[in-house]
Amino acid sequence: MEIRSLLERLIAFDTTSRNSNLELIEFVRGVLDEEGIPSELSFDASREKANLWATIGPSDRAGVVLSGHTDVVPVDGQQWNTDPFALVEADGKLFGRGTSDMKGFIAVCLASIPKIKRCNPENPIHFAFSYDEEVGCIGVRELLKALSAFKIKPAMCLVGEPTDLRVIRGHKGGMAARCHFKGEPCHSSQTHRGVNAIEMAAEGITYLKRMGMRFKEEGPFDHECTPPFTTIQTGLIEGGTALNIVPEHCSFEFEMRGLPSVNTLELADEFFTYCRSTLEPEMKKGSRQSGINWEIKSEYPALNLDGESEAIKLLQSLTGESSSGKVSFGTEAGLFQNEGIPAVVCGPGSIDQAHRPNEYIQINQLDRCERLVDGVVQHFARGAD
Known about the structure:
Elements: H1 3-12, H2 22-34, E1 39-43, E2 50-56, E3 64-69, E4 88-90, E5 93-95, H3 99-111, H4 113-119, E6 125-130, H5 139-147, E7 156-159, E8 168-171, E9 173-182, E10 186-187, H6 197-218, E11 231-239, E12 245-246, E13 249-258, H7 264-286, E14 291-300, E15 303-304, H8 310-319, E16 325-327, H9 333-338, E17 343-345, E18 360-362, H10 363-381
Parallel strand pairs: 3-6, 3-7, 7-17, 8-16
Antiparallel strand pairs: 1-2, 2-6, 4-5, 5-18, 8-15, 9-13, 9-14, 10-12, 11-13
């Protein structure tokens, strides 16, 4: 199948992270089956979601991984001019949820299979398609557990996230957490008898804001990232039942996106220590039943690949880029790097289109990506390892 036809099929599957991705995975598996290529699946606990791993070529050599995630972000509340799950072409663009992020890259990979078979690669070409990247790079961890059992590690991983085909060697790491404040409810005319969970949560949120401002003003800085500092933001909050009741509960969620030199889990510990040592004792003065608890919802490591690595040089030679860069958004690449597999982020489409209504990809980006994947395949197929 051609890239456009494949992308049309892929877009039609609503693989929003809250949904199963099995129909899409079975479609991909069918494409591989038609070419006589076996594939392996690894499932989540519910068995409603799966990763797919497939290999063309010998299994006793390193080769390259072509990696992409199958899930997309929700379209809820967005104003689309077309059906987000039906591919629409206009003005040299293809519109639909996931066109840029990142089913376009997956379509290019699938379209390359017949050419890969014909060249009978001396080194393996691996395909790794994961679930739940958008909610914390969850699925790829299970895939990497299976990969770690291999005696030979791939020599390189190409993560085809949308970079406008710029070669990306680094990105920020991140974490997200949910905090819950339990106070003591009472009538609002008797505030001295209660513990206001919303007000105490606001103290916590203010502390997070001060932490973020510290990084903005004092660094560390990396001007290859935009913005060039570690960021912290609170994105969700809920609490209270009525205006005349001192609120018993308040919860909020925050995220941290740290430069490669910053460990976001350690940074979060600073905040949790403040909650435990300062805010919670104040709450317990009003009620011993008051307190704070939290959970880490997701985390992913930064990517920080040497700009002189062979993987970077290869991608630069194939794209014509004279340099490589860094981005602030996260990918699965850092997880591959943590397993000792040099990972580069380079793919079709723009991050400016990701997660937005009327998401699209330029058709010429897919054409350029096809040439890039062909070049990567040829490099490894002819014996480079």
